[in-house]
Structures are given as structure tokens and as C-alpha cells.
Amino acid sequence: MKNIIRNLLKIILILGVIIIVIFLILLIIKKNKFTYVYDKNFLEKKDFLLLLKELKKYDNLLDNSEDLDLEKYYRFNLPLNSRIVKNLLKKYENKIRKLTGNDKIYLANNFDIEYRKYVLGSYMNKHRDFQIYKKPQYECVLTITNSTDSITNIEGYNISSKPNSLIIVKANGVEHEVTRVNKGERKFLKFIFTETDEIMNL
User: Fold this and answer.
1) Domains of the chain, residue spans
2) pTM of the model
3) Cβ pair 132, 172 in contact under 8 A
4) Which sign, positive or negative, has the C-alpha torsion 143, 149, 150, 156?
5) What is the full per-residue pLDDT of the chain (202 aa) written as tens digits?
6) What letter would DSSP give residue 7?
7) Could you give the CA distance from residue 92 to residue 140 in angstroms, rounded to a whole number?
């Protein structure tokens, strides 16, 4: 009888270890399979209002920052040098870690926070974000204002970005596109979260 109980306990122990191993493997797979996330209400209201107030200081500079993208369709793009904006984004570091399932990432130290504006005719064709760092970075787009008819399409899911919403896409991951703006304009912040500051050897 004792031998039977002993054997049963061994079997239960082995099964328990197998279940734990399977669970850990599934967690790793899930973490590595991150593609994108859309958070409809990213900043707390008071922080979003603070951000709006700070960005107003840069609107004139943004309007004079026409930038040619790789396909020669212009957008407006202004690298920001604002301690307020930087500190606000760092304040939400843990939230971004939870959204991505990666607790090692942080706001990139060597990539500018960019204030961008899309206007009539602006768009981005289907693409995968280029990997800049030795570990794939997380490209973050925080919408500030949006009166356009443009949508972001990711894996067949259409996102009409609302103010204070955040899209995160992992570099070298899922294909996505931004459809052409036929009316209105959209302002947003583009910034990067990364696991390392080491740049890829190109």
C-alpha cells in the first residue's frame, strides 16, 4: 500500500512539473508573438491636458517642418526637446511594459520623440517597421488630435485613432498601413521603447 501511495505521489509530482514547464513555454511563446496593441485611453486626463498645453508651444515649429518620407509624400515632423513630454512618457513606462508584456523595455535614450502631423494626401503604404536596435524596438504612436478619415490597418483590423489613444507595433513584426488622408489633419507623437540602446550594424 505504501508503495502504491509513493508511486502515486511521484506521478502527481511529475505531472505537476510537466504542467509548470508547459505553462512557462506558453508564456514565452505569447511574449515573443506580440504584434501590436491599441490602447484607447492611454494617459490620465490631467496628464493629457498637460501634454496638449506643452505641445501648443511647438505647433508653429511643426507647421514649418515639412519632411519628405521614403516615398516622397510629405508629412510634418518635428523632433522635440521637451523635458515635460519626456517625463510624461517615462511616467507611463510601466503601463507600456504591461501592454507589451515586456518588463525590460524603456523609453529610448538615443531616439528623438517626434511631433508629427499628417495632412491632405499623407499616408503610409503597407510596411514592417525597420529594426533599428539589436533587439526589436516597440514603435509607439500617441494620437494628439485627429479630424481625418484616415485609418491604420493592422492585420485586417481598422483603427481610427482617437485623441489620447496609443498604438504600439513591434519592429520587424506585423505589416500595417495608414490610409490616405482625404480631409482634416492628425497630430501625434512618435516615440520608441527598447530593451537596448545598441544600434544594429547596418
Assistant:
1) 1-33, 36-194
2) 0.81
3) no
4) positive
5) 666 777 677 777 777 777 876 666 555 545 556 889 999 999 999 999 999 999 999 999 998 887 655 455 568 999 999 999 999 999 999 999 999 999 999 999 999 999 999 999 898 888 888 899 999 999 999 999 999 999 999 988 899 999 999 999 999 888 989 999 999 999 999 999 999 999 987 6
6) H
7) 12
Question: Under CATH, which number does the domain 36-194 receive?
Answer: 2.60.120.620
CA-CA distance, 93 to 124, in Å (whole number)? 27
Contacts of 138 (CB under 8 A, 6+ apart): 96, 100, 102, 105, 168, 169, 170, 171, 192, 193, 194
Q: Strand pairing partners for 115?
A: 78, 189
| Amino acid residing at 116 | R
